[in-house]
Amino acid sequence: MIEIGARVDLAHPPHRVWRALTDRELLARWFAEVDAGPGERLLLHTAGLPGFDVAVDAEVVDRRAPESLVLRCDEAGRRSRLSCVVVPTAEGCRLSVTETLEQGGWPAGLHADRERHHEQALTVRLPAILDWLAFREVDLRRGEGAATAELPLVPAYHPARRGSRRAVGWVAGAVVGVLVAGAVAVWAVLPGPPERAAGVDPLPPPAVAGATSRPPRTSGPATPGRSVGAATARPSRSASPRASRTPAPVTPPPGMTARYETASTRLFGWTGEVVLDNPGDAPATGWTVVVTLATSGTVTGASGADWRQDGRTVTFTGTPVPAGRSRTISFDVRDGDPLSRSPRGCTVDGDPCAGL
């Protein structure tokens, strides 16, 4: 049993998403044109779309507004089951679309194109239609009556000054700790004083002009601890030059590189892509991509990596990138500022991304 699945988090209420799923005019704008047949039968004009070679004859077998819609599809002998599930979330809702092949088979190229078509429709075209619907539901003449609907407000992010000072202090303390630890490590590896050589007389002390020499004592026992003999002679440090400890230069392996591109824009947001490249000879593990949004936008979904958002900073992490291979991270941003259609910054492991 072959299955294609796609999922997206949307900043819209379930009833609006349900309308985009079931309204024929809206469905034609983001997925495919639809003709209604007798009963619950539909004809999806998908011929020529990526992943489709003919039209799809579909029948609604389950409809529970605004939660679930299930279609049984017949595509020139290939039978599949298409399920759309809408789940409310704190920001809006989550839409999951799953297509399961029950009879027949998809060619390899057709299957890959179909999967990309579903992903593109859900993450790019559907959010644009939902934003357009939300704009139409706003009552611009608010002073003459109650508003029919309100757009969700995204609170602006203002970092706390006290927390920033603590962060700077922490970094300064960490730098001092590293310098002290480095000094201790260098002191530990320095060579000690040269060993005393038996049978070697010490060099005589240098003569000082104008000094009065004192004759040696002739009476009284000699002090053993202060006598100078061959066994206690201390050679000069200048006689044993230190060996150079300059380490051989080590060429570090090439690091990860990344390039950014704004894939598409829409009325209330945009879609960005970061392409990671691993030029090294080993898999790149533990990589981190940090994208800084220009305004207080909200990431509503991403593919190709795990992500988390803290204010305007969005952090992406994921599985290792094989040697000599690339990986694409795609993310959708909801933003009402039409002048902000790209991030302010992008880095991979601290190095800036190309394209910005």
UniProtKB/TrEMBL annotation:
The chain crosses the membrane at residues 167-190. Residues 249-356 form the CBM2 domain. GO terms for molecular function: hydrolase activity, hydrolyzing O-glycosyl compounds; polysaccharide binding. Residues 230-248 have a biased composition (Low complexity). One of its GO terms (biological process) is carbohydrate metabolic process. It holds the Pfam family CBM_2. Keywords: Membrane, Transmembrane, Transmembrane helix. Belongs to the AHA1 family. This is Uncharacterized conserved protein YndB, AHSA1/START domain. It comes from Micromonospora halophytica. The lineage of its organism: Bacteria, Bacillati, Actinomycetota, Actinomycetes, Micromonosporales.
